Amino acid sequence: MNGFMTALRSEIFVAKHTFVSKLALIFPALIVLTQNFFSWVADTGNSARNNLISGGSFDEVIASNAYGYFVDSINTGITMLALLMVCIAAHSFSYDRDSGFVRHILIRKVGRTTLILAKFVYLHLLAVTSLTVLLITAYFSTGFFWEYGPVVEDGFELISEEEIIAEIFLGLRLAVIPLPAAIGFGLMTSSIAQTATQALMTALGVTLAVDIFKPSLGAYADYLYARFLPSLVDTSYLSEVSRLVRGYSDVLVDDRILQMNLLIPIPTAIIFLCINLLIIKQRKL
Amino acid sequence: MNSSSEEEIVSVRDLSKSYGPNEVLRNINLSVNKDSVLGLIGLNGSGKTTTIECMLGMQNPDKGQISLLNKPASSIHETNGGVVGIFDTPSLHPNLTVRQSLEHAVLLCDKPTRKPNDVENLLGVEKFSNYKIKHLSLGNKRRASIAHALIGSPKLIVLDEPFNGLDAGGVDDVLALIKNLNREENTSFILSSHQLPYLETICSHAAILHNGQISASGAIEQLISEEKLLVQLHIGNSTSAVQLIQSNPKLELQSIDEDGCIQLALTDMDSADLNSWLVNNNVPVKELIVRRSSLSKLFKKLTSEPDK
After folding, report:
1. In what order do the strands lie in the sheet with B251-256?
2. Distance set, CA A29 to CA A240, A264, B81 (Å)
3. Nearest-neighbour CA in chain B from A51: distance (Å)
4. So where are chain B's domains?
5. Chain A closest-CA separation from residue B114 CA (Å)
6. Nearest CB neighbour to A111, from listed B77, B85, B148
7. N or C terminus: which one in chain A shows less Cβ crowding within 10 Å?
8. Regions of chain B with pLDDT less than 70
9. pLDDT tops 60 at residue A207
10. Nearest CA in chain A to B78
11. pLDDT digits over B245-293, tens only?
12. What is the CATH code for B8-219?
């Protein structure tokens, strides 16, 4: 435990004094801010044009609801965060090994297994912190540009605010569950690869390749953690929530998909971690 | 050095290591006693770094047992900073400054005995305190690495090629530091290098690694004294002198050059005995030069031997 805390403190110490972790904290939030700003500019332009051409419309009412933009923001933010975390995890151990930095820690205080576990925990702390920053930024920036409220059509409340919030929470929970697997995959690549560059390229390449090919895998894709993670080719439930809270859809999450979303990612993360620990025991550092 | 003792802090038994089909180390046996400074000497590619990496648990050996401060190499971290390693490539985080690296070392120590400021001054890197490691010269990176190692009070410091990249002043500083730590704090050292003149001045013991095996090991004085005394003679009538020398079993004629200069190896005889014996046998000695045995000569001799 002493070694674990030392390793964790070491990770946090390095994070405090280097750029990469700060990038992970700020970048998804910055992307969200930028996205919201440009959406607001486009939205304002469209509203002005529609007002000139005709009166208000259903589209206009629901489009101006902040919840839709909030979900879009966190979807984009988590997509960026997941990609960043895969890259940071892939770079973390391999870079320490390339520079020899890991040797001091291993010789003086911390066992190999403990070091990997500490890195795994640290990366999760980083992801949680970044996600918190992202959610706060998304909430306040969407609130700044648009107004939060229920979906209303012709004076009737189609979806209440409570229902919207509940669905957003579910979508968010399902979107975040695969993050440990993404981190585990990055860290495993970090242990396997010969250099930091190789680790980074492999982790990013495989992540993007899986992302591209997962729609063509059909039902088999449900066994991949990446199927449930917001990504460039998005098949996560959070993308459905975006349509739901805008009133474009009333299809809730399928029970089977919900079960797979809850069951697949965490065991995958544990498998990646176990492979990682097996590799790290054997390899030259 | 190969005999066990109660004071033994490093023990390597039958260490073997291969990289694919290439056998790098073959049944290496080494031991380091408390308070000693062992020089691990070998040509480039002889397996010094592999030996050190196996000792420090950075590589798994194919065969053999290694213990440091009574802990196996794979659990070296359980010595709680009792052992530190300084590698041939300075192993500090490139994006931390010198001061931050030293603060990181404090974080790794249970009881840091020196402050970052003190070790910076000790190693002469105080003016680079705010420089990132990646911006330092190789010599200053090495100084910073040594400073990093000195934050705690290790019982054993393992240095791989400690003099690489250091200027003359830097080498002197490191030599003085090693001597000082060994004398005043009883810190033991393992130094891997092929810089024999430096090692000869600070090492109490040496192990010569050649072709993946230990060719010789022990106290340096003992190793050198086991060598035959070498003498260079310049005498008038070399033909008759050569016949006389060849008749003496204590003398081994090694070579005669074009100028009539004779190289001899002496067994159970010193240079004064040789001189008087030659004079008594009517061989006038114009010049007699004793070639003192040294670690360098022993090393050259051992490493020029064919592979066993």
Report:
1. B251-256, B261-266, B229-235, B285-291
2. 22, 28, 41
3. 55
4. 8-219, 228-292
5. 16
6. B77
7. N
8. 1-6, 226-227, 236-237, 292-293, 305-308
9. yes
10. A109
11. 888 888 888 888 877 788 888 877 888 888 888 888 888 888 888 876 6
12. 3.40.50.300
Query: Hey, is the C-beta of B57 within 8 angstroms of any chain A C-beta?
Result: yes
User: Which pLDDT score is estimated for B161?
Assistant: 87
Task: For residue A175, give its domain range.
Answer: 2-282
Quick check: B87 contacting A, CB < 8 Å? yes
Of A3, A96, A282, which has the smallest distance from its Cβ to B60's Cβ?
A282
Nearest Cα of chain A lies from the Cα of B59 at a distance, in angstroms, of: 5
Contact A151, A235 (CB under 8 A): no
CATH class of B228-292: alpha beta
Residue contact A108–B56, C-beta within 8 A: no
- For A30-68, write each residue's pLDDT tens digit: 999 999 999 999 888 887 787 777 765 555 555 568 899
Integer Cα distance of A77 and A83 in angstroms? 10
